[in-house]
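Lab meeting, item 3. Inverse folding demo.
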């Protein structure tokens, strides 16, 4: 019994939790306001470097009427705000995934099969992230009923085409 008690004492220890860092600012006057910085939630924002930038803006998950938008050229204001940005209106792609049947005398089911349908396209700007969107095709949909539907950004002049991959 003494041995178990000694092991328990030897295994006990202290865990030091780091203290939370103090806020960087409490008012805009604590920041480099002359160069456009503002204080928000205890952090100084703004004063971005000079130059031209690109951006990818994601759409809210609760909105189906807009999709992610790539901005190949954007300038940043001194306060760091991006200004008015409009998200793109999507194009809806719908369809079916069915098994392929060879031969004319073979009876084939005409119901849809489950599959992952992926759409990918290189970024509109060099070094940007590849656009990747996917949807699950529903199994058992009768002929004439789509088994998947997805909203994607429309292609613009100069865009690479989408690659569509289907994995049943």
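The presenter then showed the designed sequence:
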């Amino acid at each position: 019994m003494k041995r178990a008690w000694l092991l328990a004492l030897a295994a006990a220890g202290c865990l030091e939790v780091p203290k939370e860092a103090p806020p960087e600012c409490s008012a805009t006057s604590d920041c480099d306001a002359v160069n456009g910085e503002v204080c928000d939630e205890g952090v100084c924002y703004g004063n971005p470097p000079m130059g031209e930038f690109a951006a990818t803006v994601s759409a809210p998950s609760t909105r189906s009427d807009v999709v992610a938008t790539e901005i190949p050229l954007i300038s940043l204001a001194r306060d760091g705000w991006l200004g008015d940005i409009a998200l793109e209106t999507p194009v809806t792609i719908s369809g079916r995934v069915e098994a392929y049947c060879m031969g004319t005398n073979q009876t084939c089911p005409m119901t849809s099969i489950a599959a992952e349908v992926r759409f990918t396209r290189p970024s509109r700007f060099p070094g940007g992230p590849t656009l990747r969107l996917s949807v699950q095709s529903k199994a058992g949909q009768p002929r004439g009923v789509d088994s998947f539907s997805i909203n994607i950004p429309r292609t613009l002049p100069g865009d690479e085409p989408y690659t569509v991959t289907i994995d049943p």
